[in-house]
Amino acid sequence: MKFGIFDYIEADQRPLQQSYEERLTLVKAAEADHLSEHHATPLSTTPSPSVFLAAAARETTRIRLGTLLFLLPLYHPLRLLEELCMLDHLSGGRLDVGVGKGISPHEFDAYGEDFAQSGEAFEHAFNVIYQGFTRDRIDYSSPRYSFKDVPVVLRPLQRPHSPFWYGLRGEHGPVFAARHGMHGVTLGPDERVAKMIATFRGHWAAHADERKRRKSPVQSPMVGAMRAMFVADSDARRSGSRARPTRSGSTTWLGCGRCAAPSRRSRSRPTTTNRRRRARWWSAPRSASPPPSRRRPSAVGTIISCCCSPSARSATPSRCARSSCSARR
């Protein structure tokens, strides 16, 4: 089993520069660090993961660095290809490249992109990047991109290219990852994760010849299972309870960024009734059961991903509280 950090670097009340510095300190002690990419939401302050990874690459020497994931429909594939080659060299060949098509219409609206076309846009962008990793020239024609005999000057340090990661979602995810020789990552209850891993491994065995033709650098795939943890020097339950409303509010933005988000003040201060209930519980012996409203897991400080599925509950993103919101419907 291996452990790594999947980090949102979420916006909070600290100065952003302080958050970056603290995360870089944390990265130095980790075995692997994968960043999220989100836009127009306080859930992530790394809308350009490659910028943060470039800084992390110069602060570390042994850990692997990567993304979960680059939203390919929002990139020009040639520009991203060249940035990935730069990052692989800056990190000394420690780059992992997670890719995906995105799940939030709100983010695509912010960029003026059609979310309904994200699957097709992802496919074309990935094909261009793959050509750039494996050929001397790019020739690709599609309604979205057109490249004619474009020379590939930059090459990644890892050959034939950096390992890819892909989300094992639905029926498409395990097949796509297996065909292209990618590591996989998933989340959810243990039973669902176990079934997804078994499905992925079945497809991996069935598509061995195709991976060989593609010259995938991944011989033995890792499968990451995301689990939520809150780590603190002491009294992690209390600290986690204060962080949970902030995380819930931030995840709501993914589905409904245009709805009014609760203010920092209203999210951080419980009602009088809740304060009294919590005060009674915190003054009780620690063996006492928490009140019903506190029996759910604490908020997420960082997300830990590993290559098997420990027994733990997964975090579930919040939904918009407004009954008229399309995200709620």
Provide tags for this entry.
single chain; 329 residues; alpha/beta; TIM Barrel; 2 domains; eight-stranded mixed beta barrel; two-stranded antiparallel sheet; globular; disordered C terminus
What is the CATH C level class of the largest domain, in words? Alpha Beta
- What is the tally of helical segments? 11
Which parts are unreliable, with pLDDT below 50 for 5 consecutive residues or more? 260-329
| Percent of residues in helices | 40-55%
Strand content: 15-25%
- Arithmetic mean pLDDT: 77
What do we call the CATH topology of the largest domain? TIM Barrel
Shape: globular
What is the straight-line distance between the termini? 39 Å
Strand order of the largest sheet: 1-2-3-5-8-9-10-11
- Name the CATH superfamily assignment of the largest domain: Luciferase-like domain
Overall SS class: alpha/beta
Summarize the main sheet: 8 strands, mixed, barrel
Please write the string of helix (H) and strand (E) elements: EHEHEEHEHHEEEHEHHEHHHE
Number of domains: 2
Can you describe this structure?
There is one protein chain. Mean pLDDT is 77; it is low at 260-329. This protein has helices at residues 16-28, 49-59, 77-90, 105-111, 118-134, 172-180, 190-206, 208-214, 236-255, 264-268, 272-283, and strands spanning 3-7, 32-35, 64-67, 70-71, 95-100, 137-141, 146-151, 164-167, 183-186, 223-229, 302-306. The strands form two sheets. It has an eight-stranded mixed barrel, surrounded by four helices. Strands 6-7 form a two-stranded antiparallel sheet. By secondary structure, it is α/β, with parallel strands linked by helices. 37% of the residues are buried. Helix 1 (16-28) packs across helix 2 (49-59) and helix 6 crosses helix 7. It folds into two domains: 3-228, Luciferase-like domain (TIM Barrel), CATH 3.20.20; 233-302, no CATH class.
